[in-house]
Amino acid sequence: MDSQIERFNYSRLTNEMNVDDKIKYLKTVKANLLARAYVHSLIGNLYIKLYNHSGYANEVVKDELLDNYSYEATSSIIPFFKENDLIIRGLLVDDWSRYFNHSWISFTLHNKEYIFDPALNLIVKKQDYEEIFTPDRIGSVSSYRVKTDLLDTLANGKENQDGFIEVNKSNDINSSFYKADMQIKGEAINRKILTLTTKYNQK
Fold it and tell me: Could you give the maximum distance between any two Cα atoms of the chain, in Å?
């Protein structure tokens, strides 16, 4: 009962707190070890190249290097999730009830709903994420669709001199690569992604 009261009181204060404080709070109520291990295992073969850093996805997320790449990160990561999991795109509320554009992943594990936000390095219960950030959902796209479009790009796209293929960035918020300014290369067998390297263009 005490914990429920504490959470309720905190939720009433969130609109008076800055974004950093909200993120810090969510990190204290992070998802259970099983959910976190599940995400880490899914993205183990994704390699991310930034203009000043390169590394496997788990490392780059942990080092919090993706804060300016929420669209690229979610489009790169979601193909490794279950077909019905989603990228959600919309607005998060900041400390003075202003909004900022963002993208995050909603996934289900053992009939429980979670959020993986790679740009903010958060894996939390969906209820906690939505209670703190009160997001306004504008668009979404399924893992299945993004994976299909990514595989088609790998199979049919034209490689540049570095062996990367530019994805078809879109202004449609429900598309696979909405505002995803990135390039990809990788290996796939029988429509299964074995390895993927993504290169995010400098912002």
Answer: 61
Residue type present at position 135: P
Q: What is the pLDDT along the chain (203 residues), one digit of tens a residue?
A: 233 333 334 444 444 677 788 888 999 998 899 999 999 999 999 999 998 899 999 999 999 999 999 999 999 999 999 999 999 999 987 666 677 899 999 999 999 999 999 999 999 999 999 999 889 999 999 999 999 999 999 999 999 999 999 999 999 999 999 999 999 999 999 888 999 999 998 86
Separation between Cα atoms, residue 170 and residue 177, nearest integer Å: 6
Q: What is the pTM of this model?
A: 0.90
